[in-house]
Amino acid sequence: MTVFLLLSGGFDSASAGYLLKKKGFNLVCCFLDLFVPKDKKNYSKQIAKEIAKKLKSKFLVLNLKKEFKEEVIKKTIDFYKKNLTPNPCMICNQKIKFGKAFNFFLKQKYDFFATGHYAKVKEQKSKYSLFESKDKLKDQSYFLYHLSQKKLKKIIFPLGEIKKEKAIEIAKKNFFLKNIRESQEICFLEKTDIKNFLLKKIKEKKGKIIEFETKKFLGFHPGIWFFTLGQRSGLTLSSGPYFVVKKDSKENILYVSKNRFHSLIWRQKVILGKLSFIDKNFLKRKKIEAEIVLRHHQRKIKSRIFLEKNKAICFLEKRAFAPARGQYGVFYKNSEVIGGGMILG
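Above: the chain's sequence. Below: its structure in token form.
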């Protein structure tokens, strides 16, 4: 059987390749060429090619620069322009890795599709389910809630049963690559941060910073899209610390408060849209009892979830910190992922 493996040039996908070969699979390693890095000496494509060579597997490059620019980079910028807080990695997983790349895989008619994600797929009573990985600190099941039965049937996550430390050990021992790298959260940012990236893409729009409780003018901001709910850093205000509690895009006003536990930051009700469930039968329900994660690596919160017209109204058992519009809420039953959607409010 042949497995089509997305090989990034990092520890995780290299280790995934080693584990697949050890199980007797034939490999076709595919590097996703998404953008040209500033540091061409450490070009991941060359590293991935060396890894594939050591795995004695076929190596190919899938050029998705245009698609990545349109689907991920441009949409990230558009989200910020709309006063939303996007998750570029979530968009990339949906549109590129398990979108464009998965569709390419289907056309090649290989047996399975694999990546270096930390998650598990299990077949249960002729249905496929998604679970958290053994390594809870590195678990990436949050980013995969959108996967369908059709896709899960073809997917293998070789790292689901091992810890990150083991993956690093495997990569270092079997590939001996000095430049083998650790994966980055937002790859296209490279060595800059999101604010400096946005400064080059969105014009500044000076506006007032107002203290929410007193309505006192405190200073100016360069544009409300540079800030997110609950944010503390970057406000450059004296006599703080202050936290962002509200963004008024119509008036271009940023409201802040010294109260970190302000009711506008800590929410007990969250609304999700653009819903997706691994088992589509959940969409037929009116009410679901599940735990919800509102940002990667945040704690799970027990919730009562009511489904109405492709929206989920979630009442949380405990208040959640800063569920920002544009981020994602993912539903869990213990360690199983059942679905999720985008935070609307």
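The CA atoms of residues 126 and 153 lie 10 Å apart.
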